Amino acid sequence: MTERIREFLRNRREDGPCLVVDLDVVRDNYLAFTKSLPDTRVFYAVKANPSPEVLSLLAGLGSCFDTASVAEIEMGLAAGATPDRISFGNTIKKERDIARAYGMGVRLYAVDCLAEVEKVARAAPGTKVFCRILCDGVGAEWPLSRKFGCAPEMAADVLEHAHRLGLEAYGVSFHVGSQQRNTGAWDQALASAAAIFRECAERGITLSMVNLGGGFPTKYLRDVPAVEAYGASIFQALRRHFGNALPETIIEPGRGMVGNAGIIEAEVVLVSRKSDAPDEVRWVYLDIGKFGGLAETMDEAIRYPIRTPRDGDILVPSVLAGPTCDSADVMYEKEPYLLPVSLEIGDKVLIEGTGAYTTTYSAVAFNGFPPLKAYHI
Amino acid sequence: MTERIREFLRNRREDGPCLVVDLDVVRDNYLAFTKSLPDTRVFYAVKANPSPEVLSLLAGLGSCFDTASVAEIEMGLAAGATPDRISFGNTIKKERDIARAYGMGVRLYAVDCLAEVEKVARAAPGTKVFCRILCDGVGAEWPLSRKFGCAPEMAADVLEHAHRLGLEAYGVSFHVGSQQRNTGAWDQALASAAAIFRECAERGITLSMVNLGGGFPTKYLRDVPAVEAYGASIFQALRRHFGNALPETIIEPGRGMVGNAGIIEAEVVLVSRKSDAPDEVRWVYLDIGKFGGLAETMDEAIRYPIRTPRDGDILVPSVLAGPTCDSADVMYEKEPYLLPVSLEIGDKVLIEGTGAYTTTYSAVAFNGFPPLKAYHI
Lengths: 377, 377
Hints:
Chains A, B: Residues 26-258 form the Orn/DAP/Arg decarboxylase 2 N-terminal domain. Chains A, B: Belongs to the Orn/Lys/Arg decarboxylase class-II family. Chains A, B: It is an enzyme of class 4 (lyase). Chains A, B: This is ornithine decarboxylase. Chains A, B: It catalyses: L-ornithine + H(+) = putrescine + CO2. Two copies of one chain form a homodimer. Chain A has helices spanning 3-10, 23-36, 52-61, 70-78, 95-103, 114-123, 152-164, 186-202, 227-242, 255-258, and strands spanning 18-21, 40-45, 64-67, 86-88, 108-111, 128-132, 140-142, 168-173, 178-180, 209-211, 248-251, 262-273, 282-286, 306-307, 315-321, 330-340, 348-352, 373-376. Chain A is of the alpha/beta class. Chain A folds into two domains: 89-253, Alanine racemase (TIM Barrel); 260-376, Beta Barrel (Lyase, Ornithine Decarboxylase, Chain A, domain 1). In chain A, strands 1, 12, 13, 14, 15, 16, 17 and 18 form an eight-stranded mixed beta sheet that branches. An eight-stranded parallel beta sheet of chain A has the order 4-3-2-11-10-8-6-5. Chain A is elongated, with a radius of gyration of 22 Å. The interface between A and B is large, with 82 and 82 residues.
C-alpha cells in the first residue's frame, strides 16, 4: 500500500470493486530489473497488465514487450515501442496473425514445433525465431503445465528446420514457472539451453540468445527473494553453463513488474454461517471473486494478502467467496483464510499484490456484474 | 446442430471463434418444461445466457426470470417481463442493490441466513423471501459447493426471523447441482423442504412455495434423461412428501433451457507433439479456451461434444488447449480428448452444447483476445 493509493481510495466515491495501480512502483520495479540484470534486455509480459499507462511508462523507460496476440502488439506500438522492441512470444499463433505481426514490423517469434516454424517461415520470412523448451517448474507457486515448449532433445531439430527454411535460428527460451520462489530455478534450464547451443553449433548453426522468461515473483502472503538475488543467481548459472561465451539474454517479467504495484479495494457483502454447529466455518462473501478479476485464486494457487479495518482483532478461519451465483466462485475453502472475527457487512477490504493478472482475466458480464474497474495513477 | 445454424456458419466470413444460438431450440425447451411440469412456473436463470434475444423470446412465451444482480433485473425488465415475474435469486446481495431491486418493483428475494433477511427487511420491506437450503448434489456433473444455502435445520429460524421482521416467509429453495443426471435427485431435498414447511407451521408460519432450482441437464457427450422424466419424478416426490397439500412450485432452468441451442465454431491453431517419444500425447490448440468462453472445462467438469471435418477417421488421444499464454488454459489433459488423427491446422471444429455459460464467462481481454462473439438467430 502506497500513500498515493491510500489518497486515491480516500477520495473515491463510486460503487463496486476497483484496482488501483501506483505507477511509481512499476517504475521502481523496472529499474530494479535493469540494475540486477544489467546485460539483459527486459521484455515486459504485456498480458500481466496491458493498461496504456503501464505500457507507456515502460516504453518510455526503454522496455521491450513480450506479446501474446496481435492486439497486444498493437498496444505495444501505441505505447511508443518500435517494432524491433516487440517479441511475438506466444507459441500458438494463427498464420494470418503472424502475417499481421510481420506487416507491423515484428521480427522476433516464439516456436516450439516444426509446424509453427513452417507458419513463421511462410508468413514472416527471414525473421528470428527462438525455440521454447519444457522446464519442470519446481518451486513455482503457479507452476506451468506442459502446454508450451518441446522436450529439450527436440529443440535442435526445430531450430535447424527454421534455419533450413530461411529463418534466423536465434535462440532458446524457457519459463521456470510463475511466482518462482527459488532463485536457483534457472540453473537446470540454462544447462539444457547450453546443450542446445552446442548441438546447433555442431550442425553449423550459431545461436545467439537465451530468453530467460518470467517467473519473478511478487510478494503475497510470504516474503520472496529480492530481484537482486535472482540476478546474481542467474548470472552465476550463465557463467557455469556458457563460460565466457555468454549469450545475449532477455527476460519477460510480468507479475514481478506490476504485481506489487496494485491494490484492489473490495467490500464485504455478507458474513454468515451455514449452521449453528460450533465447528461450522464462517463464510465471508466479497463483491469480487474468481470471475471478477481474482482468477488466480483458482485451485487456491495465489493467496493474496488482505487488509481489513479490523486488523488486530482475533482472527478466525473464513471461507472466502465471490458474489456470483456460481458455486465455483469460491476463493479460499480448502485452506480457509484467517480474517478478523469482528469483520462486518459493508467493511472495505484491501487485496494486495493485485497489479498483475486481474483486470484482463475478469469476465465480461458474468451474472451481470461488470468487469473490474482499474485506475493507474 | 440445426439446419439454421449450419446455414448461418456457411455464410459467416469474419475471423475468430463465435457462438451461434438457435432460438427455435430455446422455444422448444421452454415448451418442454411447461409441458412436463404443468403446475410449475418457469424462472429462467438469466446468468446462463442473458442475450436480449433469448430474454425477449422467453418473456414473450410467459417465462419468469431468476436474476443474480441488478443488471440482470434490468435485462429482464427490458425484455418485457413485469417485476412480479422476477426473482432476485442471489443469496449474496448488497443492501443498496436490494433497495434498487425494490425500487424497480421486485418483490421476491432469496436468503440463506439471518443477516441477509435483515438486509431485505430494511431495503425491501414487506416482500416475499424464500430460504435456500444446502443439498448434497450427488449425481451432478458440476456439483455445487456449500456456497449457497444453510443447513435445513436452520431454515425455520431464518424464515421465522423474516416473519418477525414483517417479511412474508414464502418458501424454501434448493439446488440439486448443475447438469444433474439423476431424475430422483430432488427427492431428498423435497423431504427436507416438507419438514421445514411442518416446522414453520408449528411456529404459526404458513409457507407457500418450493423453488426446485435448476440442475436440468443438457446433452454433452453422454445422453441425459428427457425433461419429461424429470417432471414425472419431481411430481412423484412432491406427492410423497407433501401429500395432497402440494405447494406452489417454481423451477430455475438455465443450462437446460439454452445449453443445447448453441454451437461454438472454433479453429485449430496448432497440432503438435512435445517430443519424438512414441507414447507422447498429441496437443491440439484451438482459438478458444478456458478464458475465451469455455470456463466450464475447469477441472474438466463439462466435456463438450466436438465435431470436426475429419470425423470418421481414426481417433487419437489429444490434449486440448486454448490459445492464450496461460498454462492453466488447458481444457482436457487429465483425460485427453479423442480427435481424428488427420486433424489439421486451420480446420474448423464445432463445439456443441455451448449455449449456456459461455459468452458471459469469457474474459474481457485476456492476452488481448476479444470476448466470445455471439449470434442468436
